[in-house]
Write a structure and sequence with these properties.
The complex is a heterodimer of chains A (about 200) and B (about 170). By secondary structure, chain A is mostly helical. Chain A is built from 9 helices and no strands. Helix content of chain A is about 65%, strand content about 0%. The longest helix of chain B is centred in the last third of the chain and has 38 residues. Classes of the chains: A mainly alpha (about 200), B mainly alpha (about 170).
Chain lengths: ~200, ~170
Amino acid sequence: MSAELDPDAALMLRVKQGDMVAFEELVEKYKQPVINLLYRTLPDATEAEDLSQNVFLQVYKSAHRYRVTAKFSTWLYTIARNLCLNEIRRRSRHPADSLDATNSENDDQPFRQYEDHKSFAPAEAILQEELGEKVQQALSDLPDNQRTAILLFREDELSYEDIAKVLGCSLSATKSLIHRGRETLKQKLKPYLRTGQWRESNK
Amino acid sequence: MNGPEFDELLKKQMRGSLTAEDDAALQARFRHDSSAEAAWEEDLRLNQLLQQVPDAPISSNFTARVLGAIESEEKKEARRSPWRGVGQWLRVGLARKAALATIIAGVSMLTYHQYRSGVREEMARNAAAVSSIAALPSVDVLENFEIIQGLNQLPPVDVDLLAALQ
């Protein structure tokens, strides 16, 4: 893997030399994808953000060990996934958080806040919100490996080989995970796939 | 065309990188299997739904907080280990260690030499001071020392006799 082919790897090599501007650039680029990945497993915005910060802290602390043998994004998502798994294991040993807990900053607000990407008429907005919640729930219900595989599958720059590296699986196992996950989602979301409620997204 | 191959084409479709050959393969598949086209349409819809899953909320000062956490971590590291300097020393190369040891030894020897010189000077000054003191009395005088000392043991003064003599 050459640094010329991956601009993010070139930035990371600068971080290795102590370049904080390069590090900031990487954080700005990947903060949303990383938190998206973690948020689907830890459905608490505050915890997902805290863990995301730890991901980048770990990236910085590991900079001296960074080698350009893979895409930077593959390395980054591997760190994110490992920290996420550690957190899940920690919770299984010390279950303390209630699934019904509300957002600590706004106690009267539900956990999940959806950002409005478009402005819809009220009825359509309700429909879109319901659809979004259904998709979110269907994703959350997937086994962890399948969910992570499908979320990484969404990322344009990641190939099947990259996803396999992040998951620590073989290529065929990764493809199988993605296929099974998608089949499960299609089953759960069948009414929404058939009714055409998705058609707004075509615009 | 099996499931994973279908997914491969779907990924290409998501990236907008379906080639003419891919499209032809799909059309051929649809002609042989009408349910395949319905499945493809379903997968396209699922792709669109997944793409529309909202982004997770994130603080506007996320990057600043990451940088703050790094700075905090580095300060903690600096405070945590007084032996950090030893650790760093151990990582220094052998040549540098030898050079540094030589310098320290040289400075130590110079300091010791200066100390010894200072002590000798002080002793010399003290000897000179002693030699300037008046010479000791001769041996003859010292022989009479016991007689002189004995003078301290004279009987007490007879006050009445003194008064009569005046």
